[in-house]
Specification:
heterodimer; A: 612 residues; alpha+beta; Beta-lactamase; 2 domains; 5-stranded mixed β-sheet; 21 strands; 18% strand; B: 357 residues; mainly alpha; two-stranded antiparallel sheet
């Protein structure tokens, strides 16, 4: 039975306590407000921040690439060190930790920090740690250790960490407290997710009076496959070594890049840039000697997204698409199957009466070529003919830049928006750009401005055009699927914008796949590189490129390919800076990576045939 | 089934003052978290977005609970009690997070069964006292649930459930001498726990610290934070008083942050709203013929009032830190939803007693 009078006692209790609370707050907030503000002004608390463990990084198979572990570290509370006990502590440290040098002691005891990290004491057992704590200035806190399990492999994707600069303090407020910030790669791009929140150690005078534990950052799952990454890195190194042995180059060949992307999703499976570095060196602070040595060979540049190269013949697929889509073929023919005769050079006259001769890489010519064999044998004359047609039909009109429009439509001349920092956009030159350059960079252009010859250069990927390997890979992906999207590394990325390109239909994709397939088969420029695959080569496609560079720089070696014609899964793009020849260097490197992707036995990279 | 008048909101009807107060408390929490969240980012990690999502869920729960008749509720009470006991037992077998086993990890949210155990325990005792004569087996069940929660360990929730049990039994026709006996038993029980080391060392330290002469750092800071709110609060000031360290502002210490931002006026407002709510519940005691209704209301009033009292007392340094949320203000899904269930059941009791305003 419910007794109302007893409930009233209970209610009375609650009401009186509520009234008491109100009185208490009245006293705190109104009567004692000035006392409190004085107290706050006089508070002499200091905070020492303890780094949070950054999130760990995994590859697509959940293989751990970067580990963060918390290990106990010995700290010294320097506020408890005074003239009387300083020698005692020095003696103690010297006796117990022989590796500490005199210079270390100077740094420790002259520091202005309240707490100073002395060393990792993970190697000490429980009793030894306890005996350290008997000295009142010693403190033990867990401190994060970051380890890059694969060293140089994937170093440009992952990036490295270091002490934040003033700008980084502003951009990433947590970095000030953590004392660390991602400097490149996904370590930088995903800084906010990875960083975590530093712990706080509150000092009142020399006593630690409060401690909050750091909150670890979020883990990051990448799309890359570390096995593919390792094989791609090895293959590129092998190919570069062979190129050095076979070419008489002025400079040592040492730079290059490989990009493998998933053709359907845009996931980046592998991205190699050479020379590379070991991010572990940055964890404890890299020496300036090591840093300068790596910096001198551009080891910190990710050439896959920052290397700007003329694309050479891999760019011919842009004109290929334009020709098919606009019905714009060389003078006198109107379909992909009509042939023109290639005599090894093209001579023609412009409206101003000047006579020009352009020489193909193959001096005795390719014979009768149609669109397919022009791609297969990388015949320049065929594409120059198309450029001439464009020039003669549209010079001065808005359609003059139709080739550039197609190139930009495939993503050339702008960043792909991949989730890495410092991506470069490259340049697709046209009349406007040349007009700007006559003012801003007069050394790069002729005073006459944009001429027909510039367009002829552009159509074969030469001249002022520059592209990055990731742009080329993404352009091939767009042309072979009809959809464009940004490539990405974050497996859990959820804001992927996919745009359908209505100028690319299934029939066109089929034509292009078949013609790329001709390249790796008999009479194709990459035949020799793919010969070892035997009948498997029947299902592979690609395009070689050898882009000439100004001055005494050797040509840039390119290959852009697809792992399968019947069921395309991956796009692979290989670039070797000053690699000399696409078919001889980049193609056999790519072949070894494709061997891995399609699951056949790997054979060594072999120096290929020099075409182009 | 009792006959009911037609009411305005929802197919089962709604008591307008209960629903109105429920919304007021929800809006206060939105506004508080809006002030505390730094900028609005549209993702689930943002505390404001989180609270709004929880809050909308809790409003839905409020209406869903209103569908369940008190008769049905009474029927299922024993099964619910069995389920929550099992859940609490299973929880003890999971791996600890930050030294305690208090939550089931369900992806983006954590599920805290002890929040629901509070509500179910109230229903269970109310039902038991209405239906059965002998009171002794009751103590066995209640002892079990207290034991399971103490083992997590969660001293705060154990104490609150203990007090709620005491309050409901107190308003029943139990003889006062038995009540005294129960209190003595609970204390013995508690000291056996202490002696056998079953209470978490951390919590003991907190209690020891409290009785030592040094003021707890977090509590001294939260007192300064509250005090600097002054009459109208710092939210509307341009030169804010800062340099105060308060941990976990959005959960246990949220009322300190509230008092800092909205001042004495804000504190007065929220406390008066809660007092209004409790006075409103008195109507049931006057009108209802069902003892179950009255026991449940007693339990809910005690549960909410005691939580508010303990939360405010800890942040003003009157009680040692226990980690109890402030109802409908602290960030936390389980706490929001369990409080919504309390409001929903209360609402149902009101409409079954034909009280619509």
């Amino acid at each position: 039975m419910f007794l109302r009078n007893r409930y009233n006692y209970l209610a009375l209790l609650f009401i009186s306590y509520f009234l008491f609370i109100i009185v208490n707050f009245f006293s705190l907030q109104i009567l004692n407000i000035n006392d409190s503000i004085d107290k706050i002004d006089q508070q002499t608390y200091d905070i020492f921040y303890l780094s949070a463990p950054r999130g760990e990084i995994y590859d697509t198979n959940k293989e751990k690439l970067v580990t963060s572990s918390l290990e106990p570290h010995l700290f010294i509370n320097l506020r408890k060190i005074n003239a009387d006990n300083i020698d005692q502590y020095k003696q103690y440290l010297k006796y117990n930790f022989e590796e500490l040098k005199n210079s270390d002691f100077e740094e420790i005891f002259n520091s202005r920090e309240a707490l100073y990290l002395i060393r990792n004491i993970n190697d000490l057992d429980y009793l030894e740690r306890q005996s350290l704590l008997e000295l009142e200035a010693f403190e033990i806190f867990d401190y994060p250790i970051r380890q890059y399990n694969y060293g140089n492999i994937a170093s440009h994707i992952i990036g490295y960490i270091g002490r934040p600069t003033l700008e980084e303090f502003e951009a990433y407020p947590d970095s000030r407290r953590n004392g660390l910030v991602g400097k490149s790669g996904v370590e930088k791009y995903y800084e906010e997710e990875l960083s975590g929140i530093a712990g706080e150690i509150v000092f009142k005078g020399n006593e630690i009076i409060d401690f909050t534990t750091p909150q670890p950052g979020e883990d990051l799952y990448l799309t890359i496959d570390i096995r593919t990454q390792r094989i791609a890195t090895e293959s590129l190194l092998e190919g570069i070594k062979l190129a050095n042995e076979n070419f008489d180059s002025e400079n040592i060949i040492q730079k290059g890049s490989i990009v493998v992307i998933d053709i359907n999703s845009g996931e980046v499976i592998s991205m190699v840039s050479l020379p590379d570095f070991d991010p572990n060196k940055f964890v404890k602070g890299i020496s300036s000697f090591d840093f300068n040595q790596l910096n001198r060979i551009d080891a910190f540049n990710n050439f896959a997204i920052q290397g700007l190269y003329p694309p050479g013949s891999v760019f011919k697929i842009v004109a290929y698409w334009l020709a098919e889509n606009e019905g714009l073929f060389p003078e006198g023919i109107s379909t992909r199957n009509n042939r023109v005769k290639c005599e090894g050079n093209l001579s023609f006259s412009f409206t101003d009466g000047s006579q020009q001769v352009y020489n193909d890489w193959k001096q005795d010519g390719h014979g009768n070529v149609d669109l397919s064999s022009a791609i297969q044998q990388s015949c320049n004359v065929y594409f120059w003919d198309i450029a001439l047609k464009i020039w003669r039909t549209y010079e001065g009109s808005s359609n003059e830049s139709i080739l550039q429009k197609y190139a930009r439509n495939l993503g050339f001349g702008k960043i792909t928006e991949i989730d890495l920092p410092y991506e470069k956009a490259g340049v697709v030159p046209d009349r406007e750009l040349f007009e700007q350059w006559t003012i801003t960079k007069p050394e790069l252009v002729r005073p006459e401005g944009w001429l027909g010859g510039d367009l002829m250069n552009l159509i074969v990927g030469q001249g002022a055009i520059t592209t990055t390997p990731i742009q080329v890979a993404n352009a091939y992906k767009t042309l072979l699927t009809g959809y464009s999207s940004a490539p990405y590394f974050d497996k859990n990325k959820d804001d992927i914008e996919i745009v359908k390109n209505y100028d690319i239909n299934d029939e066109f994709i089929e034509f292009l796949l078949n013609d790329l397939n001709l390249v790796t088969n008999k009479n194709g420029t990459a035949y020799y590189a793919f010969e070892v695959l035997g009948s498997k080569a029947n299902d592979i496609g690609g395009k070689t490129g050898t882009a000439q560079n100004p001055g005494d720089k050797n040509s840039t070696s390119w290959f852009a390919g697809v792992d399968s014609i019947s069921n395309p899964r991956y796009i692979i793009v290989t670039v070797v800076d000053e690699g000399g020849s696409g078919s001889a260097v980049a193609a056999p490197i790519s072949r070894r990576v494709i061997q891995h992707l399609i699951g056949v036995d790997l054979t060594p990279v072999k120096f290929g045939e020099i075409t182009e | 089934m009792r006959e009911r008048k037609v009411t305005l909101l929802g197919p089962e009807g709604t008591n307008l003052s209960i629903f109105f107060l429920f919304l007021v408390f929800n809006f206060i929490s939105w506004f508080t978290l809006f002030v505390l969240s730094e900028g609005i980012e549209l993702n689930f990690n943002n505390i404001l977005i989180r609270q709004i999502v929880f809050s909308l869920i809790s409003i839905i729960v409020f209406f869903l609970i209103t569908y369940i008749s008190i008769e049905n509720l009474q029927q299922y009470t024993d099964s619910l009690f069995a389920i929550i006991t099992i859940l609490l037992a299973v929880l003890l077998r999971t791996s600890p997070k930050a030294g305690v086993r208090r939550w089931f990890d369900l992806g983006p949210i954590d599920f805290q069964p002890s929040e629901f155990a509070k509500v179910i325990t109230v229903l269970f005792i109310a039902n038991y006292l209405t239906k059965r004569k002998s009171k002794y087996p009751l103590f066995l069940f209640l002892g079990l649930i207290l034991f399971l929660i103490l083992r997590q360990p969660d001293l705060g929730t154990s104490i609150i459930i203990g007090f709620v049990i005491f309050a409901i039994i107190f308003v029943s026709d139990i003889k006062i001498r038995y009540l005294v006996l129960i209190i003595l038993l609970v204390f013995t029980f508690f000291f056996i726990f202490l002696e056998s080391g079953l209470i978490n060392e951390n919590q003991l330290n907190r209690i020891n610290d409290f009785f030592s002469t040094d003021e707890d750092f977090q509590q001294s800071q939260s007192k300064l934070l509250i005090s600097s709110g002054s009459i109208f609060g710092q939210y509307f000031e341009s030169n804010k008083v800062e340099k105060v360290f308060v941990p976990v502002e959005t959960t246990d210490f949220i009322f300190a942050a509230y008092a800092y931002n909205f001042g004495f006026i804000g504190v007065l407002f929220i406390l008066i709203m809660w007092l209004l709510f409790f006075f409103r519940l008195n109507q049931i005691l006057n009108v209802s013929n069902s003892d179950f209704d009255k026991f449940v209301i007693t339990g809910f009033v005690t549960l909410l009032a005691f939580q508010i009292i303990v939360n405010i007392s800890t942040i003003t340094g009157l009680l040692p830190l226990t980690g109890l949320p402030f109802p409908l203000l602290s960030l936390g899904g389980s706490s929001m939803v369990s409080t919504a269930i309390i409001f929903g059941i209360t609402n149902r009791i009101f409409i079954e007693n034909n009280l619509v305003i």
